[in-house]
Amino acid sequence: MLYDVPSVARCIILGLFDTMSVLDYLLRFPDMRETVNQVVRLAREHLPGAQLELGVYTDPEIDDSYLVLYARFPEYTPEVMERIRVARRACLPYIRGRSGWILLTTDFRQLP
Description:
By secondary structure, this protein is an alpha+beta fold. 45% of the residues lie in helices and 20% in strands. It has one domain (5-105): 2-Layer Sandwich (Alpha-Beta Plaits), CATH 3.30.70. A three-stranded mixed sheet has the order 1-2-3. Strand 2, helix 4 and strand 3 (102-105) form a beta-alpha-beta unit. It is globular. The model is unreliable at 1-5 (pLDDT under 50).
């Protein structure tokens, strides 16, 4: 399987630990490549100071998987989830109508 170097580099820069899973997902759903770029851009704009990590979530009960972009913060204040919701709404026009899906969320892991 062939991967283009810029995609791999972007994934590593994002803090992606399971690079091959994400790249495999993007090969299966090529229209998601630009969507990921836009979602990451909007997440950076709406969530300054957040560390972003991109991965693939696979549902253990049904045959389904999608991209997940985790936003992590040094501190989780009450407004963090509202900021994430605002960022999600900004991302929706880039996600709708695509063959795959990406979810912007947090797992509440604290940054050092």
